[in-house]
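Hi C.,

You asked whether I'd gotten around to modeling the 188-residue construct. I have! Everything is below, sequence then structure, no commentary in between.
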Amino acid sequence: MTHIKGDRLDLRELTPADTAAVLAIYGDPEATLHLSFEPRTHEQVEAIVARSIASASNDPRTEYALAVSLRSTDQLIGFARLATDPHQQRAATIGFALRPDHWGLGLGTETVHLLCSLAFDELDLNRLWAARAPLNTASDKVLLRAGLTEEGRIREHVFVRGAWRDSITYSILAREWRARRQPGSDPV
């Protein structure tokens, strides 16, 4: 079972009891405004949580859909995902969403750091990548602060809310992650 501990946050496996907390994120129009899908229903979130729990027992495991919880209370405030990429060697894509009342506190950056730790320290991957909506400037700041490098734009990458939307992509390599963690480097 995956459990990655940070300063203020933990990434942990989801449980059926987390459904309402995930719905508070995935069902919220503000929280999903820049995501690749529209707000989810209770039934859809139940299915997402059930699929996430089931994926934890897959061998090999290709998806880590995890609760982002506050260390102090274990309260779920976000959802994070790492999925290995079958088209790239030792690579994965990451994504996350936090409850809007926890935005602007540095928790997005910590979430990305925890996903990097999972990828590079636990899974021995070589490359992670992420994508954001062009209008999601807050995610731009989070990804850059976390050490990712902007790579470019995928045109008409996602069909959401009745229209095609571009995505801006970012990546980080294992060697870059390790270099950032060396004494005297930028803090992570």
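If it helps when you're writing up: The CA atoms of residues 39 and 89 lie 33 Å apart.

Thanks,
B.
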